[in-house]
Write the structure tokens for this entry.
Amino acid sequence: MTTRAIIFLMAGLTMLAGCASQQEARTSTQGANASAAPSEPGARIVKSRDGSFEGEVIGTPSPSSRFAKLQIGMTMREVSSLIGAPDDMIRHETGKRWIPFYFGNDAQRLQVIYRNEGCLTYTGGNVFGGGDNELIRITVAPKGGCLDT
């Protein structure tokens, strides 16, 4: 094989691998909580508002709570316009950050804290910072203590 043929072969394999990971990102990791079992006792798995993925709700918000207005799958912008800005925010990378050719929106996580309400967890975008921040977990914890470790 010539050098040129090897380069074309490698480019083709690279594109094929990228397409495969993109398809997997769309189907199984969009909501980032693809497991069927809740992460802790008392949590429940719920479908996103468009039904494309599952999220998690931990605890039950009171009817007068700001969190009672929220739905899994809302964007951070929608949540902020509905219930206001959070009091604090934490961002961290997930293990998907290191998958070659991963273009899904769950390479990072963003957790926002609302004092006297709890925490909301969003997908944090892809490795390049793009992607929608979708709500994947609502943690009702009016007395605090809802941060992931």
Q: What stands out?
A: The chain has one domain: 3-140.
